[in-house]
Each structure stands twice: as C-alpha cells, then as structure tokens.
Design a protein that fits this description.
Elements (H helix, E strand, L loop, with lengths): L2 H12 L5 H10 L4 E12 L4 E12 L2 E7 L2 E2 L18 H5 L7 E4 L7 E2 L2 E10 L2 E8 L5 E7 L7 E13 L2 E11 L4 E12 H4 L1
Antiparallel strand pairs: 1-2, 1-12, 2-3, 3-4, 5-7, 6-7, 7-8, 8-9, 9-10, 10-11, 11-12
Length: about 200
C-alpha cells in the first residue's frame, strides 16, 4: 500500500461521527413536510389474534398535526404526551407524528453505537423533552429511522414502548414504511399501524 493510501485509510478510520443534530436533520428531510396519511390501527394479542381495528387519518404540516381522526371522529392532542390514542392499543400521538425528532436535547448513546436493526448498522441517539426520553436508531448509511424506544419516566432505561417498521411501500415517487409495529411493555398486546394512503402537498393540489 502506498503512503498516500495509508494516509487516506488513517483519515477514514479517524473520521468522527457527525453531530447528532445533523443526523436528525437528515432523517427529518426524508419525511414530507406537508402530507395526508390514512390507514388502520390493528390491536393483536401475542398469538396474532385481532382484538380491535380502527381507521385513522391525519394531515401534517412541518411536523405539526393539523388534524387527526380515528373512526371518523376528530381527536385532539392529549394533555399527557405519552397517552395512548386508542383504548387497548399502544399508539400515541408521537407514533403518528414522530414529534420527538424535533426535540432539542439530543446526544449519542455511546454504549449502543454499534447496534443493528434488521441487519442495518445504526447510530443510536437519545432525545429528551421534559420527563420523556426516546432513543432512536438511525441507519448509518441513510439516517433513516429504523426503530424508536421510549423509556420509563422514572429513569429506568428499560423500554416501556418500542416502535419499528416492518414493510416498505412506494407511494407515488416516495418510499415509506407501510407497516409499523408498536409494543408496550407488560400489556401482552402489539399494535400494527398500516399506511394505506400517503399524499404529499404536490399530490393533493
């Protein structure tokens, strides 16, 4: 190996990780600023038996919800940010809006920087807002959101809720998760969020 090649290799090894805020910005850039989404919320037990099913739809503008409907009824943002939106499910406002990607208290989780999700190497970032702590796994190559976990509020690092994507689908010119799974510790239930329609601002004009 030439001296030049050795220097380039050393520089690559020594290259620091980008700032976590930069990675979050890249992740948010993949999400449409203005979008209309519709689908279903399906609650299942451990055996996969459906316990309940609901239709939902929402409009988002710049990460903020303009409207959310479940079974045709308007739903306001709950006073308790982590409160579930459908009885018996694990789905919260944050699961649909991913509002934690806009939180300002951001840092790397140095103990879990080499973890993978579905075979994809990830960077793990901790986000905090008030008494809430959410840990996100971002794909190392693309900064795409692979998984999110919310911790118990008392400082216990055990995940109380976990969200991850299980299927991708092309909506128009955009690839996006078409199935998300949400699991809340201790409930024995798992909630599936399906995305059946996704329209960006350009597509709704």
């Amino acid at each position: 190996m030439t001296a030049c090649a050795l220097l380039l290799a050393a520089a690559a090894v020594a290259a620091p990780d980008p700032e976590p805020r930069q990675l979050l910005a890249e992740c948010r850039a993949m999400l449409p600023e203005k979008v209309e989404v519709a689908g279903r919320i399906v609650v299942r037990n451990r055996r996969g038996t459906v316990q309940a099913e609901h239709k939902y739809s929402f409009r988002r503008d710049g990460g903020k919800a303009l409207s959310l409907e479940i079974d045709g009824k308007s739903v306001e943002r709950p006073a308790e940010a982590a409160a579930t939106l459908v009885d018996g499910s694990s789905v919260t406002w944050s699961d649909l809006l991913l509002d934690y990607l806009d939180w300002q208290d951001v840092s790397y989780d140095s103990e879990r920087m080499s973890e993978s999700v579905h075979g994809q190497k990830c960077r793990v970032i901790v986000l905090k807002d008030g008494g809430r702590t959410v840990r996100v796994w971002l794909d190392k190559k693309t900064s795409a959101l692979m998984q999110a976990e919310e911790e118990f509020a008392d400082g216990d690092k055990t995940a109380v809720r976990r969200l991850w994507g299980t299927r991708l689908k092309k909506f128009g010119e955009r690839w996006a998760p078409s199935v998300l799974e949400v699991e809340k510790a201790g409930t024995g239930l798992r909630t599936k969020i399906t995305i059946e329609e996704l329209k960006t601002e350009e597509e709704t004009r």
